Known about the structure:
This protein is mainly beta. The protein contains 1 helix and 17 strands. It has 2 domains: 20-32 and 54-74 and 168-223, Carboxypeptidase-like, regulatory domain (Immunoglobulin-like, Sandwich); 76-165, Immunoglobulin-like, CATH 2.60.40.
Amino acid sequence: MKTALVASLIGLTLLPAAEAGNIKGTVRAKGPVGEADSAGGGNYQSRRYKFVERIDYDQLTDFVVYVDQQLPGPRPAPPPEPAVVMQKDATFVPHVLPVLVGTTVAWPNEDEIYHNVFSVSEARAFNLDYYKRGQPGKIVVFDKPGRVDVFCAIHAKMNCIILVLENPFFAVADGKGRFVIRNVPPGTYRLRAWHERLPSQFKEVAVPDGEGVVEVDFTLGLSELPKPQERSS
């Protein structure tokens, strides 16, 4: 009896562990349909509107794709080293930064002018006050999931977004819209493609055991939004 029990325990320890896979694909934006809503519609040659900046949906960047759900088991520990958002040429770099809950973010000022980094977001409100280039110690811990909009109190066009996420399975798409989420355990997940000025798109993906690769593509556009009913005359 003891021999059989020992043999069964040894057999359990020798069972291969589930091997993680990757989720890869593309994400792109689609602009409004129709001449009146398109970037080319209207009289943009007039002096009044000649310099109005229009959106090129094919050139949008800063897409984030991530597993949008809590996973069983303890939450993974955040990385030991802080993530970094630089202030360079009166711009936050990067503009969008996804992080795991508990991550520390450093905010170095690389400009020869003062900045004042702050946020009033519910997920993380803070104020780093005025500081100049080379001043150390400007860090913030993001310990609650959610979107955090960050601004500079001095410069009107400076803003960035910290996406604080529940798990480490996320990726920022590159300049061509390609993304890879690596080392995802086998299972079925709710995947979200996000952009700051477009409605998100959700898809269910199943990651197989055995270092498999799942491919999924997203197209974000305003057509996902409901349209209000027109008032009858």
